[in-house]
Automatic annotation (TrEMBL):
CDD domains: TPP_PYR_PFOR_IOR-alpha_like (cd07034). It comes from the Bacteria. The keyword Oxidoreductase applies. Residues 23-210 form the Pyruvate/ketoisovalerate oxidoreductase catalytic domain. Residues 260-475 form the Pyruvate flavodoxin/ferredoxin oxidoreductase pyrimidine binding domain. The lineage of its organism: Bacteria, Bacillati, Actinomycetota, Actinomycetes, Propionibacteriales. It comes from Nocardioides renjunii. Residues 524-589 form the Pyruvate:ferredoxin oxidoreductase core domain. It holds the Pfam family POR_N. This is 2-oxoacid:acceptor oxidoreductase subunit alpha.
């Protein structure tokens, strides 16, 4: 048999979504395809999306797990609004994702599970593969399960075990379609299943069978090629936000000379940080899996008291439980990094879905006047730098710091250029080594005397001769640090702790505003301001508006408390300020209160990232209003092919 001649078609980008039952291995399939794509050199952004249950109801819509990867030959910012290709392993996966597909999208369906029972579970009254209900799409019906079982029968597995390799068959087929290198997957499967040779060999055989099927079948006559992206020189790796946070904490420990102590209680979606840091004892990292959230943060504060870098990781429900202990760290003025990987709430909420609704909790969620600096990364790779920045602030200013990541950043991934050590800042703990009050025999150590520049108190390691001191949750007397109930002292200390956090703004660079026409007097009238993981969708939406010929400026906040010194001046520079958030307007509220600027909020709380196309329409409407013009964002053919 002669293999059909295949046409090779050049693309500049594609969005693929793998979807199936939560037991079908879609996260593993998507992750392996992503690693292949990273090895090839494309720019990429991913969006894993899975149920909260360990084993969600099989064959039902709530049990669908998906993994979306957007890759391109140019710089991209998001995982994409709508898939160009959907791989659906069962009826529920098809039904759950069909509404996201644009007309003309490719659908690859595993026909094996399209039985009457599974169709009913998914809410179908008849088989959607029959008739012309999917005529708007390019549908390929393939018995992935059946071909997988046939491909691995030599290994003597049960039919159930053999069919589990169907995800590798699908991965092989998609790897062939898009010219992905297979060496990384071969090596991964060989290592992962090294102790179970039959499973290892079956998965490798299924993967190769999927590749060969694409190469020989007449059903797929087109193979696609997406060239590597042009990137700045350097060594790159694919990285998730949680992994980047872990590496950032390790690097911060090295750069500060401090041992890192993580006191944590497992919670989705932050647990990966605990898992990863437990592997790095060689860098002086100690991990303590506590019995609950309160014990985790308490242990971290204890580690800071004895001169280590105390860190605790959690999500929104855990921050609520840790709030009293964080207040203790505010009062004792000890360095502490609190990482909140935000998820859908309130209460247990949506544990595996993304949200950024903990900003006000981070800002005000403690009793009394307990100000805490807040830092937020903008992308998975940026989590590395955000972690180092949080440690810098915590150590330099002797304060707990909140780092607000979220589920989209934590589980999503992108190429990350590995920095060299000389690019990383040095963080000086500047431990107290001598008495600081009085002279001669009367010299004492006062734990609440302050550095004039930072207002930070001295950090003395317990056991240092002559520097014995007492700290705790009761109010401190200015300077000497003894317990004080004096009203005037309390007012002074409250204002001093707030002033210390405000003083952090002195060390921040000016806010970077991307406004291409500003230098020659043709600046935009509309500014889009964001924070956290909205960076990608906002940037993609702004690109669309600019490609259509309209002016719009963009800025993104890394520091949410304190704000950069020039933020107020930047806001007042524009006629309209749009603030997109995955909450009901928390940053908008803070900006209105502090700067009396009537910002316009765009708010969604759907457990999913914002969509670039929707933001572009909202931005376009504001541009039309601000400039008194009609705005048409209908893309040309060229613009459609360069979506971001």
């Amino acid at each position: 048999m002669v293999a059909p001649e295949k046409q090779v078609k050049q693309l500049d980008r594609v969005i693929i979504r793998f979807a199936g039952d939560s037991g079908d291995g879609m996260q593993l399939t998507g992750d392996r395809f992503t690693q292949e794509t990273a090895a090839f050199g494309n720019d990429l952004v991913t969006l894993p999306n899975f149920p909260a249950e360990i084993r969600a109801p099989q064959g039902t819509l709530p049990g669908v797990s998906s993994f979306q990867v957007h890759f391109a030959d140019h710089d991209i910012l998001t995982a994409g609004d709508a898939p160009d290709v959907l791989v659906a392993m069962n009826p529920a996966a098809l039904r759950a994702n069909l509404g996201d597909l644009p007309k003309g999208a490719t659908i690859i369906v595993d026909t094996h599970d399209f039985t009457a029972r599974n169709l009913t579970k998914a809410g179908y009254t008849e088989n959607p593969l029959d008739g012309d209900g999917l005529s708007e799409y390019a549908v390929h019906t393939v018995d992935l399960t059946g071909m997988t079982v046939e491909a691995v029968k030599e290994f003597g597995l049960s039919r159930k075990d053999a069919s589990r390799a169907k995800n590798m068959f699908a991965l092989g087929l998609l790897s062939w379609m898009y010219g992905r290198p297979t060496e990384t997957t071969d090596a991964f499967l060989t290592k992962r299943f090294a102790k179970v040779p039959d499973i290892r060999d079956a998965n490798l055989a299924a993967f190769k069978a999927g590749w060969n099927f694409g190469e020989t079948t007449e059903a797929f006559v087109v193979r696609y090629e997406i060239k590597p992206a042009k990137m700045a020189p350097g060594n790159y790796r694919n990285i998730t936000g949680n992994l980047a946070l872990s590496y950032g904490l390790v690097a911060a420990g090295v750069q500060s000379g401090l041992s890192v102590f993580l006191g944590s209680y497992p919670i989705t979606p932050a647990s990966d940080i605990l898992h990863e840091l437990s592997k790095h004892k060689g860098f002086g990292v100690t991990t303590f899996q506590a019995e609950d959230e309160i014990a985790g943060v308490g242990a971290a504060i204890g580690a800071s008291f004895v001169g280590q870098l105390g860190v605790t990781t959690t999500s929104g429900p855990g921050v609520a439980l840790k709030s009293e202990a964080i207040g203790l760290a505010v009062m004792t003025e000890l360095p502490l990094v609190v990482i909140d990987v935000q998820r859908g709430g309130p209460s247990t909420g949506l544990p595996t879905k993304t949200e950024q609704a903990d900003l006000l909790q981070a800002m005000f969620g403690r009793n009394g006047e307990a100000p805490v600096p807040i830092v937020a990364p903008q992308s998975p790779g940026d989590c590395f730098d955000a972690a180092i920045e949080a440690v810098r602030i915590a150590v330099t200013y002797r304060t707990p710091v909140m780092l607000l990541s979220d589920g989209y950043l934590a589980n999503g991934s992108e190429p990350w250029r590995i920095p060299s050590l000389d690019e990383l800042p040095t963080i000086d703990p500047d431990f107290a080594t001598a008495t600081n009050y009085g002279d001669g025999d009367d010299a004492e150590f006062w734990p609440y005397l302050r550095d004039e520049a930072t207002l930070a108190r001295p950090w003395a390691i317990p056991g240092t001769p002559g520097l014995e001191h007492r700290i705790g949750g009761l109010e401190k007397g200015d300077g000497h640090g003894n317990i004080s109930y004096d009203p005037a002292n309390h007012d002074f200390m409250v204002r001093t702790r707030q002033a210390k956090v405000d003083r952090i703004a002195d060390s921040l660079p000016p806010l970077v505003v991307d406004d291409p026409g500003a230098e020659d007097g043709r600046g935009a009238k509309v500014l889009v301001l964001g924070w956290g993981s909205t960076y990608g969708p906002i940037g993609a939406g702004v690109r669309r508006v600019r490609r259509a010929g309209y002016r719009v400026a963009q800025a993104h906040l890394r520091h949410l408390n304190p704000f950069p010194h020039d933020l107020g001046e930047v806001l007042r520079r524009y006629d309209k300020v749009l603030v997109p958030e995955m909450n009901l307007g928390q940053l908008s509220m803070l900006l209105r209160a502090k700067y009396l600027v009537d910002v316009v909020g765009y708010n969604e709380v759907r457990g999913l990232p914002l969509k670039a196309a929707v933001l572009a329409d909202v931005i376009g409407g504001l541009v039309a209003e601000a400039e008194g013009i009609d705005v048409d964002l209908t893309p040309t053919t060229d613009q459609e092919s360069n979506d971001d």
